[in-house]
Amino acid sequence: MAPASAAPRRWLALAAHLDAEVEVDAPHRELPGRLSPAEWQDADSLTAGESALVAELADSGLVITDDARHSAHRERDDVLRAGHWWPPAAMMHRLAWWQGLDGVSSMEVNEMTAAADLWRKLGPPPAHVLERRDAQERVRLPRIAGNEFDEMPARRVTCRNVDGDRAPPPALCAQMLQCVFAAQSHVRVDDETVFLKKHPPSGSGLHPTEAYPIVQNVDGLTPRPVPLPRGRPRT
DSSP letter string over 48-93? Predict the structure, then answer.
């Protein structure tokens, strides 16, 4: 019997300021472990072989240098450090981006656009109610009559039907952005320390999320391209 073919084994290096992994070999894999992640190291302290490896790693962005040729990698690394990102979190945000994927087209090609298609392709879903104990052991809770608060979400309706020919007024667009992204109040500790209070919860009130609305059909607003700042992962 012929042996089964196996996928080649590769070493892939990740860096929080890079958009993709970088394939490395054994020498390139070991050298970064002998360099400081936070302090500059004099190039004269390296051997000739190490200097050659550093030059190759700098080209890929895995090593940061003060050479003008690698300024783009250095600038992105500086912005990342200035934001005090935890490197694993920064890598998760940056490398979790989808690239070159069209979810709608993929669903259509794979005939998975409706619930019946999903059932046919993937089989039945898990039970909608998990029975973990016998009925005799359950504690029955009383049904509480609803109040005004319960009526409010009951009146809420979520749908995906969009009238492409009907442009919303600017006031409606502003109200939507205000409810979702705007600060409702703030706490000023001093001139340099301000904590925003927004509807979405955020640890320590930091709200590290920035919104870049894509306006396409709002009365009185003309779409125009605005380049996003580079160098920091977006959430």
Answer: HHHHHHHHHHHHHTSS--S-GGGHHHHHHHHHHHHTT--HHHHHHH
